[in-house]
Amino acid sequence: MNPSFRLKTILVVLVVVGLLMSFLLPANVQAASTTLTFNPVADAYINQASPNSNYGTNKALRVDNSPLIHSYLRFDVTGFSGAITSATLKIYANSSQSTGFAVDELSNNTWTETGIKYNNAPAPGAAINKSGAVKKGKWVSVDVSSYITGNGTYNLVLVTPSATQLSLASRENKTYAPQLVVSSAAGTSASPTPTLDPPSTSPTPTLDPPTTSPTPPLASPIPTNTPGVSGDPVLVGAGDISICSLAGRTETAALLAQTPFSAIFTAGDNSNEDGTLAEYNDCFTPTWGQYMKYIHPTAGNHDADGYPDYYTYFGAAAGPAGEGWYSYDLGSWHIIMLNTGCTGMVSPCNDAAGSPQELWLKADLAAHTNKCTMAIMHQPRFSSGYHGSYTAQQPFWQDLYNAGADVVVDGHDHDYERFAPQDPTGKADPVNGIREFVVGTGGAEHRDFNAAIANSQVRIANVWGIMKFTLHSSSYDWQFIPVAGQTATDSGSASCH
Questions:
Q1: 380: preceding bond cis by omega (within 30 degrees)
Q2: Backbone angles phi, psi at 422, to 5 degrees
């Protein structure tokens, strides 16, 4: 047979067979499996410390056991006709935690992203699975196949037994939104949502602006008389400053613009979320960051979450990298900045007697014989606030008390509290005691007080504001200044020892 004719015959046969197969096979036959990826249609976290607050538009989800913080996610699963073979929840970690989180069931479908609060949140159901240890900058995968069984709406709750808060990216973080990856054995599907592969590296997440109403601009440009002060120096500041979804940092920054000052202090938690460089740049820089060259910062526990970004952002102003303790003189006063939020920065946390920081404090006090001395740190030795008193700071207080220090300023509890002069054990001492001010009012979520403890003189809750100290040669004036629209204030004067 002619080879050319033979080739033509084969081609004709193949075409005919192909046409017959197209008629005989069902049009919806697919490969062996279908995999689709879904992003949440709603997510939010709730916080026992702020039971009436909603965090549905925050760029992070959070879990904690003290206070109780749970995260809620809702997924709509569609497009499957075959049996579900696997389902995996994938979440990007903004911080690290050795315990990780558990994923619980939730049959209640009535909660809403912008309406859920601690006081109205449905209780989690049975546990599905656990994540294990979580590492910052990595995707975390949890098998939830036992719960995701087909098309439908599914609610998940993230909880943890750990008292170390964990931050995870929410759906408002467009680059690292949570994912539910679902596979079925076979079947037709709707148009799939593209599967997002984890990044090959671990870049800092790109943080989008909050979807709530934009943060208002500062009330006015920096006045010409700021920071210039005629007469004795003025030190202003606060702790617990910048939460990206709250306007508090902007409102307290407006007070800085209206108050002549010589220097600014921070009492820790400058970024009160995850302490990442992106958060500092996005949320701290446009507000308090306008006054960077005047700021003397201290580190808080949330700043430590983003270590070493705290030192990258503040540079030499934060003190030696990895330590964070330093001192300076302002007028006739000696100002000491201590690092009590040192988790992840130094190990061990250097607030114990005999630790490098405590030994440095003793030497610094001995080397400076100023008439008046102030120390600024994050966690308070004494507090009637939500977190309460921290006995770990007693060695610092003992050194300060022995050296005749006059004032200690703290943050951590999101309130304002002034104490009468007292010794390191909490005994009133009007002659040699240290007066403590808790000023965690820089812009973080408000918290209420517990029962007042001994020597507490003034307590102001649910108000943002800054502290103003006028530092005279042998005395000082204090004034708590609330943000616009608030009237709660406190002021007074005292002599140095």
A1: no
A2: -150, 165
pLDDT in tens, 344-384: 455 446 678 888 899 999 999 999 989 999 999 999 999 99
User: Which residue range forms the structural domain that includes residue 131?
Assistant: 34-184
Instruction: Give the C-alpha separation, 423 to 430, whole Å.
Output: 9
d(CA 105, CA 126): 5
Contact between residue 297 and residue 326 where contact means Cβ atoms under 8 Å apart:
no
Q: What is the CA radius of gyration of the chain?
A: 29
Place of tokens 């193949």: 14
Q: Name 159's bridge partners.
A: 102
**Nearest by Cα to 456 from 487, 486, 413, 396:** 413
CA distance 307 to 493: 38
> Would you say residue 189 lies in a domain?
no
- The residues facing 491 across adjacent strands are 479
Q: What is the pTM of this model?
A: 0.64
Question: What gap in Å lies between CA 128 and CA 105, rounded to an integer?
Answer: 6
How far, in Å, CA of 328 to CA of 145, rounded?
A: 58
Same domain, 179 and 259: no
Asked if 178 and 249 sit in the same domain, the reply is no
The total number of structural domains in the chain stands at 2
CATH number, domain of 295, equals 3.60.21.10
Per-residue pLDDT reduced to its tens digit, 386-434: 999 999 899 999 999 999 999 999 999 999 999 999 999 999 999 999 9
Instruction: Identify the three-state secondary structure at position 173.
Output: coil
Half-sphere exposure of 299 (CA within 13 A, CB side): 38
